[in-house]
Input
Amino acid sequence: MSQEQSVRVSPGWQMLTISVVSLVGGGFLFVLGIAMEHWLPAVLGVGSIVAAIVMFAGFIALQPNEAVVLLLFGEYRGSLRESGFYWANPFFTKKKISLRLRNMEGQKLKVNDKQGNPIEIATVIVWRVQDTAQATFDVDDYTQYVNMQSETAVRHLANSYAYDHGEENELTLRSGVDEVSATLKNELAARLDKAGVVVEEARITHLAYAPEIAGVMLRRQQADAIIAARQKIVHGAVSMVEMALKELSERQVVEFDPDRKAAMVSNLLVVLCGERDAQPVISMGTSAG
Output
């Protein structure tokens, strides 16, 4: 694997002054040689002008969060990261690389979760180049490499978790968004390290069942919600009936035989668990015949 190294360069403004002086002086010598009809000043003037033109090719201007990779006839000589105006060997091949944070919003992928259900998933990844040498020499195109490896990591992530109905206490894509995102970030970091890229953040932005099973799964979720609600209602109703019977017994409000107690429990459960408001029936007693 390649490794980034620094390179020594000269201050740009100092070399710019030398280049301008060389260009102006060469022009003056050339004109003087032509005027005096002497070839030596003219040749020196032409040489000075050519040298100035070559020197102009060595200037480098870097903005903040920008780097340049320098090669000399195919050999890596180093990278420059500090923003400013510099001058380097004019024969260096220069390749600028942005070090700024980049967002990659992935497209919606249709994959199968751990249980084989087709789902749609999309992510957003924040990344930046950390090692310019690796990004330049170890992969063909680091931007395309990030895109391909990100899609592969997202597919692997979806295959590793159930959408929302896992085993008991099992982490799912819906229930553990933060944990799943951290897993995705770690996997991406391992994959993209070969390209000198560091992942700052990875988040799931879209998660849903595929359209062909979305309706069925929605009814399943509704059924699960109804069952859970019914369980809670029944549990609460039983507790209230138990409390009512206990209070009535302790205060000796009424004495219940087994049949009347069973009827009382049945009536209370109907009232507490019913979906409609109960209509009370008041007994007025029996009339004497």
